[in-house]
Automatic annotation (TrEMBL):
GO terms, biological process: DNA-templated transcription; nitrogen catabolite activation of transcription from RNA polymerase II promoter
Keyword Ribonucleoprotein: no
Record's protein name: Xylanolytic transcriptional activator regulatory domain-containing protein
Domain Xylanolytic transcriptional activator regulatory residues, every copy: 3-76
InterPro entries hit by this protein: Carb_Metab_Trans_Reg, XnlR_reg_dom
Claim: Lipoprotein is one of the keywords in the record: no
Cellular component, GO annotation: nucleus
Organism (species): Fusarium oligoseptatum
Length: 310
């Protein structure tokens, strides 16, 4: 059974249990209210990332989603500690709570990216993207870019990639990879919709920004330490890493010069190496490498033809 079919079953079961409905006023214990919210948002994230990596519609529709965001009171494990008031606190319980909340925020941004740039209504011939054109699409993307930038800027020190402790695993790497994947998804969509009529200055800005995001994402994977790779990685991590390679493949396929094609091929080799050397400790890296070879394994042909474009 595929992950998506399994997620569909979970969504159906959750809806039968009313997990998708606000239960604040229900006559149930406070611990159950918190548990329901946590389960609901975990399922929401699974659905959104599943839609992203498999290119399928959402299983949970916004019109049928009425769940409040989790609060500190939903996590009895925190006790009397207020994570927001103790941003320097680094206990595993607080870090786990913060990671979960930040993943929710990031997934909400991803949901808007998919709805705006990857939905059937947006991508079909004559759809919303065709109707608005590249310039208007970039304007629609700007608020999403700002939200991603603000999300990253507001991360506390305990969730920074370099915030590791001696002989302790660190799950921050998965959070930063997810952020990179959302950025890649957004800029990949903008590169895809460019046409010969795109203004030259805008064309260069979009491609240079996409290259910068690609380079940044590869460097992120290359900076993962053993504390990161041996920690928990969700089921979407392999696809998130492979999506970085897909961006390189798209830039390669739409490049205007051999130099740019060679640059893209070099980035793929850099990505391959980053995944290969971490594959022994991180199953997600091995799976990402397999997906990368399946999807864009042919970019090496660029290096074999230095005299011109194949």
């Amino acid at each position: 059974m595929s992950n998506r079919m399994f997620t569909a079953q979970l969504v159906a079961m959750a809806q039968d249990l009313g997990i998708h409905i606000d239960c604040s006023a229900w006559a149930i214990p406070a611990w159950e209210v918190g548990l329901r919210r946590r389960l609901a948002w975990a399922l929401y994230m699974q659905d959104r990332w599943g839609a992203c990596i498999h290119g399928r519609p959402f299983l949970i529709q916004d019109s049928d989603w009425d769940v409040r965001l989790c609060t500190v009171s939903d996590y009895p494990e925190l006790g009397a500690i207020d994570p927001e008031a103790n941003r320097d606190h680094t206990s595993p319980i607080i870090v786990g709570w913060d990671l979960f909340m930040r993943h929710i925020e990031l997934t909400q941004i991803l949901s808007d990216v998919i709805r705006t740039f990857y939905s059937a209504a947006a991508t079909r011939t004559g759809g919303t993207l065709d109707q608005m054109g590249v310039v208007a699409a970039v304007e629609r993307a700007k608020p999403l870019v700002f939200r991603l930038r603000e999300w990253h800027a507001n991360l506390p020190h305990r969730l920074q990639l370099q915030s590791t402790k001696l002989r302790e695993l660190c799950a921050n790497g998965a959070l930063h990879l997810a952020h990179a994947a959302v950025e890649i998804a957004l800029h990949r969509a903008l590169v895809r919709i460019m046409t010969p009529d795109t203004p030259g200055s805008l064309y260069e800005v979009l491609r240079s920004t996409a290259r910068a995001k690609l380079q940044s994402a590869i460097e992120l994977l290359g900076s993962l330490r053993p504390e990161h790779t041996a920690a928990f990685w969700g089921s979407a991590a392999a696809y998130q890493a492979a999506e970085i390679g897909s961006m390189a493949g798209l830039l390669w396929a739409t490049a205007d010069s051999f130099d740019e094609m060679a640059w893209c091929a070099a980035r793929v080799e850099e990505l391959r190496w980053a995944l290969r050397v971490r594959g022994a400790a991180a199953p997600f890296a091995r799976e990402a490498l397999r997906l990368l070879e399946r999807d864009i394994g042919g970019l090496g042909m660029v290096k074999a033809n230095p005299d011109g474009i194949p």
